[in-house]
Structure formats: structure tokens, C-alpha cells
TrEMBL record:
SUPFAM superfamilies, sorted: Homeodomain-like
Bias type Basic residues, positions: 62-71
Domain (Winged helix-turn helix): residue spans on this chain: 99-156
Name of the protein in question: Transposase
Gene Ontology MF term list: nucleic acid binding
Region (Disordered) location: 57-76
Tc1-like transposase DDE domain mapped to chain residues: 172-311
InterPro entries hit by this protein: Homeodomain-like_sf, RNaseH_sf, Tc1-like_DDE_dom, Transpos_IS630-like, Winged_HTH_dom
């Protein structure tokens, strides 16, 4: 069976000779279909060659310069390295581009601005894949956070805290609080394309709050409560922890005003032999492993259920946390996540 010739694999002179023979055969009376079968080329190629010959004669079928046109070439290695570095280290708005996130369109505009080379979105996609990049949901970070304080916490402060806790035979807990709402939905649901699935739930809005503390050994303390998070609430939680603890507690929390209140500081000072309260650097919740427990509760205790009342919601959250207390391996696994692995 005769196959079509891939003219791109022929040298320039052979290509020009083939084009000339095909055009002359068609002009001499052969149909384009017959010419395609005889010479083993595609109908599309013959159609293009006939158009070129009509507009410029047989001279237009001669061998020309091969390669990309000036200004349309691919990025060379140094250019590619620089564009990749810019994407990794900066966001589009930091480079004065009218985009918020890195997309194929924004990368194409960056390449054109920096080197005057126009590339398609498809080509940009191939670049990004070759550079080891993929489309990912970005993580929100506050402008107020300081990289220096975070680096100091990771390299100096926490290692010192861990050393002191070991010397005092204390247990390091990571604590946090969060609010839960009845209209929270998480996860995905299969449905026909173009038909967004509808979740039926009560139109009433209600909520509750929880405070928890976990260790890298799998221990979990929690308290579910109603109303605002106040000094008395946090102190009650600390009392419960002290009642259950057999060793001194190092509790690491964020900079919530309650944690820094005068009443809490007084309570901690009164129990300094058994309790130490430590504050994380500001605006860096990703450093707190307890944030991952919060996400677990939102996803598995609330997001996939439809409570019809506040009492039902509170009961569901408590049952989920009681179950997690009996699954220390699940709590330990939280410390394997990239941003909190330092605390494992």
C-alpha cells in the first residue's frame, strides 16, 4: 500500500522539484486527487502549491530559506532560563503585567515584552510543562507577614523551644480556633457536563465554634462551644488541658487578641510550672499543624453532611473529633505535610 510522502523530511531541493512536478501535472490535466495518489502527497499540500503558483508562478515553488522567520523563533536557552526564573520568583503584578496569576496568556505576554517573540498559548503550555510547572490552586499569603521572622522561627526559635521542652519533659501542643457554618460545602459531586449539581439543605444559617490542640505523637484535645471566642473560653480550655496532662504543656498558638489578653497572661503566669504559652510569627497559619485538623473537620465532619439544626451540627463535630482522638495515626499524619514537617 502506497503511503503519503512526508515532504518535511526531504531536503530543500527535492521539495522544490516535487512541488514543481505536481503543479505541472495538475496544470496538464491531472486532477488533484489523482496527483495526490500518484505523488504520495496530501490534497491540502497540492491545494497550497497550486495557489502559490497562480499568485507567483513556478518561481514561488523554488527552495527558500528554511527555519523560522526572524522575530518568531523559539526562546534560546538563556532566555528560557530567565523567563522560568521570573515565573518562579515573581507574580505578574510584581512585573507590571496586567494579570493576577500566571496563565499561558500572561506568560506569552511576558515573553513578548522581554524578547519581542510572539508565541501561542499552546507553545507556552509546552514550555511550562518542559520547565516542570503545572496549573495549581494558589495559596493566599498576607502582605503583613515577614520572611525574616518566619525564617528565624524555623531555624532558631522552634528548635530552641523543642530543646527546652525535651529538657523539661514537656509536651508540645499546637492550638487553634475556628468557626463553623451550616452553609459550608466542600468536595465535588459528579454530574452531567454543564449541569451544576444542586445540594439541598436548610435555608437557616447557624454555626458553632471549636478550639483544639494536637501533638506530633497523635494526642488531641478539643472543646466545641457556642458564642464568641473570649478570654473565659480559652482559659476554660487551658484548665481542661491541665487537668488531663501528666507533664508540663508547651502550647503554641497564633496572635489572636485572646491569646495576648491580660487575663490569659495572668492565668499562664499562675500556672507557669505546668504551662507555657508560645506565640507563632504573625500571619503564617501554614506553620501551625492544627490548621490541618481544622480543614479535616470542615471537610469530613461538616462539608459532606447537611445538619438541620445547631444541635445536630455540634453533635456531628463532636462525634468526628472523638473519633479522631481514637485515631492518633491520623493526627500524626498531619505533621507530614510539607509546611509543618519541621514540627514532626
Amino acid at each position: 500500500m502506497k503511503t503519503k510522502t512526508d515532504a518535511r523530511q526531504l531536503d530543500g531541493a527535492t521539495q522544490a522539484h516535487l512541488r514543481k512536478m505536481v503543479v505541472q501535472a495538475v496544470v496538464g490535466g491531472m486532477t488533484q486527487t489523482a496527483a495526490a495518489h500518484t505523488f504520495g502527497v496530501s490534497l491540502r499540500a497540492i491545494s497550497n502549491w497550486m495557489k502559490r503558483s497562480r499568485e507567483g508562478g513556478l518561481r514561488s515553488l523554488r527552495q527558500g530559506k528554511r527555519g523560522r522567520r526572524p522575530g518568531s523563533g523559539r526562546l534560546d536557552h538563556p532566555q528560557a532560563v530567565r523567563i522560568r526564573k521570573l515565573i518562579i520568583e515573581r507574580m505578574p503584578d510584581q512585573l507590571a503585567l496586567p494579570f493576577y496569576l500566571w496563565t499561558r496568556e500572561s506568560v506569552a505576554q511576558l515573553i513578548e515584552r522581554e524578547y519581542g517573540i510572539k508565541v501561542s498559548a499552546w507553545t507556552v503550555g509546552r514550555y511550562l510543562k518542559a520547565w516542570g510547572m503545572s496549573a495549581q490552586k494558589p495559596v493566599r499569603r498576607a502582605y503583613e507577614r515577614t520572611d525574616a521572622s518566619i525564617a528565624r522561627w524555623l531555624n532558631e526559635d522552634y528548635p530552641q523551644i523543642a530543646k527546652e521542652a525535651k529538657r523539661e519533659k514537656a509536651t508540645i501542643y499546637w492550638g487553634d480556633e475556628m468557626g463553623l457554618r451550616s452553609d459550608h460545602i466542600s468536595g465535588t459531586s459528579f454530574a452531567l457536563k454543564g449541569q451544576t449539581p444542586v445540594v439541598r439543605a436548610t435555608g437557616q444559617r447557624f454555626g458553632c465554634n471549636m478550639i483544639s490542640a494536637i501533638t506530633n505523637r497523635g494526642a488531641l484535645n478539643f472543646m466545641v462551644f457556642e458564642g464568641k471566642f473570649r478570654n473565659a473560653t480559652f482559659i476554660e480550655f487551658l484548665k481542661r488541658m491541665l487537668k488531663q496532662a501528666s507533664h508540663k504543656i508547651y502550647l503554641i498558638v497564633d496572635g489572636h487578641p485572646v491569646h495576648r489578653s491580660r487575663a490569659v497572661r495572668r492565668f499562664v503566669a499562675d500556672h507557669a510550672q505546668r504551662l507555657r504559652l508560645i506565640q507563632l510569627p504573625g500571619y503564617c497559619p501554614e506553620l501551625n499543624p492544627d490548621e490541618l485538623l481544622n480543614q479535616d473537620v470542615k471537610t469530613n465532619a461538616l462539608g459532606k453532611t447537611r445538619p438541620t439544626s445547631k444541635a445536630e451540627m455540634i453533635d456531628g463535630v463532636r462525634r468526628h473529633l472523638h473519633r479522631r482522638q481514637k485515631e492518633p495515626h491520623v493526627i500524626r499524619n498531619l505533621f507530614k505535610e510539607k509546611h509543618v514537617r519541621y514540627a514532626a
